[in-house]
Amino acid sequence: MSEPGDEKKLVPFPFSRSGLSRTREAPRNLGLTEMSAKAERSGRGAKGHWCSNCKGIWYSYFLECECPVCGRRG
Question: Above 90 in pLDDT, residue 22?
Answer without folding.
Answer: no
